[in-house]
Write a structure and sequence with these properties.
It is a single chain. This protein has one helix and five strands. By secondary structure, it is an alpha+beta fold. It has one domain. Strands 1-5-4-3-2 form a five-stranded antiparallel β-sheet. A hairpin with a 5-residue loop joins strand 3 and strand 4. The protein is globular, with a radius of gyration of 14 Å.
């Protein structure tokens, strides 16, 4: 299992990634500011897993969501609250070309599996207790 990343570490990683201000990259062909089904155009070999937000000490993470105001799951400005769904089931990935960070998890329904991805933005990370 990848290393667990607590909120402080996640913030530090996001800060470092944003300081580098990378230019255009193949990983940005599709805007990923909000949750999206992973686009076919995204080259999997361009991403490297660097950690997980799924704590080993929490075998059954909550499905509660943190969506204040009028934000929705799909909103580009929805907060990234690591203790809440779906973030508590995410892994953190880095583009090996430009160092942008992405959150990824697999959404499972009755008859489908959907790999979802969202760009990690420092300004949206909120350390909200359950």
């Amino acid at each position: 299992m990848p290393d667990y990343l607590d909120t402080t570490t996640l913030i530090d990683l996001a800060r470092r990634a944003e300081v580098s201000e990378p230019g255009p990259c193949a990983c940005t062909k599709t805007p990923l500011d909000g949750w999206q089904s992973q686009p076919i155009s995204l080259d999997e070999t361009q991403l490297r897993e660097i950690g997980t937000l799924l704590a080993e000490s929490d075998p059954e993470p909550t499905f509660a969501e943190y969506l204040p105001g009028k934000t929705t799951y799909w909103s580009d400005n929805a907060p990234v609250a690591p203790r809440y769904f779906p973030y508590n089931r995410c892994s953190v990935w880095e583009c090996v070309s430009c160092a942008r960070l992405y959150l990824r998890y697999t959404e499972g329904g009755g008859y489908f599996v959907d790999r979802r991805i969202r760009a990690l933005r420092l300004a949206l990370i909120e350390d909200i207790p359950l």
